[in-house]
Amino acid sequence: MRMSKTVSVLWVVLLGACDDPARFVEIDAGSAFDASTDVSSDVCVGEDCQCVAEGELRANLTQVDVVWVIDTSGSMRDEAVAIRLNLLRFAEAMASRSSDHRWVLVADSNSLEVPEEFADPERFFPVDITVSSNNAPEILTQTLPELEGILRPGAVTHLVIVSDDDGFPPTLPGEETTTPEEFRATLDETFPQGFQFHAVTSPPEICETAAGTGEDYWDLADATSGFTISVCTLDWSPLTDALVDRVTTTSLPCQIPLVPPEGLSIDFERVNFSFRFEDASGEVQEGTFPFTDPDGCALPLSGEPTVGWFIDRETSEVRLCPLACSEISSAGFVDATVAFGCPPALI
Predict the structure, then answer these.
(1) Can you state the angle between helices 237-246 and 322-330, rounded to 10 degrees?
(2) Looking at per-residue confidence, does 146 or 99 come out higher?
(3) Cα–Cα distance measured from residue 226 to residue 243, given in angstroms and rounded to the nearest whole number
(4) Are 56 and 25 in contact (CB under 8 A)?
(5) 196 or 100, greater pLDDT
(6) Do residues 136 and 212 make contact, with C-beta atoms less than 8 angstroms apart?
(7) pLDDT bucket at 20, cuts 50 / 70 / 90
(8) Sign of the CA dihedral 32, 34, 39, 43?
(9) What is the DSSP pairing of strand 195-201 with strand 156-162?
(10) pLDDT over 70 at 45, yes or no
(11) Helices 180-190 and 136-143: crossing angle, nearest 10°?
(12) Of the candidates 183, 191, 198, 104, the residue with the CA atom closest to the CA atom of residue 138
């Protein structure tokens, strides 16, 4: 969904009694954000008539990093036209955006080349390496150390593998290869802020021009709320349009500092998080993510992934789980509220 309005975080801080209203003029929100405060000293909530101070936090344009890993082996001849058409459309659209994005193409440059007019050296980073039928996950994990300094820790990261075969084929005794679990563990370690994985591969039931199933790829995409596109289709626009749309999106932060006014402390048992967002019809709705803990943020390869938030008491921050972070980085979120004085919603 394209978001056209300014995104902000609304802090609601419940402080003291009403006969001693809180008055302060700044919330230290960190260097990435500009903070301002509008104090309402006469507004009271709750049974004890506590006072409320409100501060607004405006978010910057989202940093987005996209990595494409494309199989150019002989079995991909039938898909070559679709690859070139869709990658060219993506490259042209990205080049036209005034946004904070970077994208990486991991592929054999003799088989796949981005036109110079779409290859801004400050945004586009090619990695010339041959990706074969069954080694795309291994190539990606081997390439990640080379991308240090290109891929940014604070960016919303999208990883795309394009292949017509199984990236995790059965092995013979004594052979070593990357397993889906090892691949996922490497990605989780490399991108602690979260990532979305997208698969342009065969569906679990092999499509007509594919050499093998992409079931493991599709499972990982489902677990990270990513897109799944059949490699046997010519149109990848659901994925490419969404990626281009996201590089021009402003988003809510995924780590929100909890900084009370001077002289007051935070009761970590009484902090809550909620947000407002635009639905498909443009109506503004209210919602929240379930309260969890860091262990609850683990993203399994199968089963229901966790979309939630927790409180980091060491850093005094509200932190969103990777899937929740991905959601607020891409959907039409209007604002969010961190409230002190009420226990978190366990939903």
Answers:
(1) 90
(2) 146
(3) 11
(4) no
(5) 196
(6) no
(7) very low
(8) negative
(9) parallel
(10) no
(11) 30
(12) 183
